[in-house]
Amino acid sequence: MNVSHGVENEYLRRHPVDAAEQLETIPDPELEPVVGSLDPRALGIAMEYLSPPKAIEVFEVLPREAQLEILERAAPRLAVTLLAQLDDSRREQLLEGLRSVSREDLRRLMAFRENSAGRLMDRSYLAVQAELTVGQALKRLQQSPLRGARSVFVVSTERRLEGRVDIQDLALASGEESLADHVQRVDEAVTTETDREELVELLERSRLDSVPVVDLEGHLVGVVRYRSLFHAIEDVATADLQKMVGVSPEERALSLPGFAIKRRLPWLHINLLTAFLAASVVGLFEGLIAQFTALAVLLPVVAGQSGNAGAQALAVTMRGLALREIGIRQWRLVLGKEVMVGLFNGVALAITCGIAVYLWSASFGLALVIAVAMVMSMLAAGISGSLVPIVLTRLGQDPATASSIILTTVTDVAGFFSFLGTATILAFML
Amino acid sequence: MNVSHGVENEYLRRHPVDAAEQLETIPDPELEPVVGSLDPRALGIAMEYLSPPKAIEVFEVLPREAQLEILERAAPRLAVTLLAQLDDSRREQLLEGLRSVSREDLRRLMAFRENSAGRLMDRSYLAVQAELTVGQALKRLQQSPLRGARSVFVVSTERRLEGRVDIQDLALASGEESLADHVQRVDEAVTTETDREELVELLERSRLDSVPVVDLEGHLVGVVRYRSLFHAIEDVATADLQKMVGVSPEERALSLPGFAIKRRLPWLHINLLTAFLAASVVGLFEGLIAQFTALAVLLPVVAGQSGNAGAQALAVTMRGLALREIGIRQWRLVLGKEVMVGLFNGVALAITCGIAVYLWSASFGLALVIAVAMVMSMLAAGISGSLVPIVLTRLGQDPATASSIILTTVTDVAGFFSFLGTATILAFML
User: Fold this and answer.
1) Identity of the residue in A25, A209, A247 whose CB atom sits nearest the CB atom of B209
2) Where are the transmembrane segments (chains A, B) (predicted)?
């Protein structure tokens, strides 16, 4: 393969996403000769599709002029991400090299909280004043470099947001009409401080393609478009993955270890407490285990099966709640389904597992004990897997938070108790 | 509370989303008097925000005329969902009551695969022919009831898709200009058969707000708008929750038990195999356990902690990969972080746990054994939690599929082995 690794200007311009994927696979030491020869403008577009660590690597090996051009021209979100990774003096040096308009723009953007509407908004939008005629407004639009908008915002002389006009309405009106006749109310506006989660919810509830952003004094400062929320929607939707095992939704794969340690440790301590609870169940049967050590060997099998089956029920129910496909009032239906599934799969696994244990131990009693315990604990898994997120929601909690930790406690206790309890009753057969 | 449960026409019209939330909380037997008096048109809008089971309940208690009005006027997606739940004869009866245009529309829609572009598309869009002048095109737009679009599609006389024109460009052009001068190429179009996943990916890669949909012969038949993909984006993003524990991403909270049983059982059998593997590790130490039964009691504590810590590392890494915040080439960074976290949290938990065990057993040896095992198994958890999804990706697999099952095997084996192994070495202290 030649030094370009297949990434050349023409390719970069036509297929920025594919080029980004290609760049992603180039080892860091080989990056410099590849990206050094590329057009910074085209590179800046492809860099939006790189993972942040790779984007930084690429940025770092570029000559200063190329760096400045990327900061100046690329999407502000990329520029802010890149600048955030530099140390203060490097950042200042680069900012000083920019045109003052861009510099001030980026500084203002960096001042907003991460994940706030201020950071996510697009600062280019169309705005006109209501006193104009349709013809005058169209003339203003003609002078703007923006294309492809579907509405124009209407602002007062102090840039206070007053409404919006559909461009389609402008196109259909005659030039002498007053713009004011076509102004529609803006029902939904957010401030620069509005959280990403709230924005996602707002766009979901409303049927808007974009939401205007005003500052704390009500002046229009930007617009959040649907497509810039794509990442935010995915991000919010996948947060449950982390919350269910006691990881803060803010933690990222490359967060600092200190942040991860501090946030995860409390939940691990709670998990420790629940693990001792499960252990105390085993403790109740210590005498029995001393007599039949094979029980200790098979103990994790029942609890493990129950744990996984419970996690299945939990995942489906939690996702159903998150996507609003079920509400908590449907708890009977969900529970009924999971009881059926637990019972059926419990019987199926009891048969497989019973046969396997019989072949291993040649003890019919032990095989029977594990089979009975399997059915009982799988049932308990289905019941708790479906009820944990529903009960959490009913209590006003997030159905994801710590759900996996609560579930494991239930399935462990159920698994241990059903297995050792059945063994106690059927001890004469062991 | 009066019989309306606070849901009245005015409220329904102004706040459909809130009204839907209100409706969701009304028990099914009390629905009829509440919804019977509502304006079907406003109700149809609110019903889009109901969970499907509740939407069906509401629909079922309405008089036939109201049902027909909802099918006729509400979003086609709602109509298709409602019709899909009825038995064949009821569905036919209702369809027969509709105007023939609506009936054919709905039939055509139902013929598309679920989750295909055909089902998700909007059948109302603006289209004109290229031979027109700008003025003529504007006249056509004026006759259309659609408002708020940002572009018009250009089609041939056979309705083949030829391009699109920004409405903003139309607004700015003079009426005599030829429309053909303003036509832009459409780079991205999908067919009615295109999958939802592919659509989501396409909208993510491109910077479009909507994608035109063509049939297999290239005729324009609809448009998929960003906002109708909102649910699809969330749905695709949350599929990992299920895949990681061996549940098919197609399963829903209210899927038929038979579907759930058939799809979950194979993974539960694989999990059973891995549970036996973990049990065989315990089997190696059967003699030791017979001597010190306290080991059997504490066994689940170490494995449980390691399992939860591993699930934390797994969740963060998997989410990072899914959101493309990391690529597999960053494996060293991710692994390094998780090793640090595992080591630190392992030491912290070893101290807590060691003290607790000493207080319970008054055995310094046992406390030391569990403390050492805790550090080792927490390290193993961090390593496997971060590497499992990365290795799966490297092997060309989905990083989520069965990741939790693989991880649990590793953390169980590591937990049992480190605990019982350390106990063997330090047996003289027990």
Assistant:
1) A209
2) 272-303, 339-360, 366-392, 404-429
> Scanning every residue of chain B, which has its alpha carbon at the shortest distance from the alpha carbon of A340?
B257
The tokens describing B117, both together, are 């572009």
List the one residue out of A354, A411, A406 whose CA is nearest residue A380.
A411
**Mutation target vs B (from A254, A388, A407; most B CBs, 10 A cutoff):** A254
- In the block, tokens 């083949």 appear at B160
Backbone angles phi, psi at B168, to 5 degrees: -60, -40
CATH number of residue B165's parent domain: 3.10.580.10
| Three-state SS at A210 | strand
Contact B289, A366 (CB under 8 A): no
Residue B176 lies in domain: 127-232
Helix (H, G, I), strand (E, B) or coil at B210: strand
pLDDT digits (tens, 9 = 90+) for B128-170: 898 899 989 888 888 887 776 778 899 998 899 999 888 888 8
Question: A150 in helix, strand or coil?
Answer: coil
CB A70 within 8 A of CB A62: yes
Nearest CA in chain A to B357: A276
Chain A residues with CB under 8 Å of B305 CB are 268, 271-272, 275
Segment B12-26, tens digit of pLDDT: 888 887 888 888 888
Dihedral sign for Cα atoms in the order B91, B97, B102, B104: positive
Domain count across chain B: 3
Question: Domain check: are A287 and A366 in the same one?
Answer: yes
Does residue B272 sit in the same domain as residue B204? Answer: no
- Cβ density class B11-46: b for 16+ within 10 Å, e for less: bbbeebebbbebbbebeeeebeebbeebebbbbbbb
Shared-domain flag, residues B167 and B80:
no
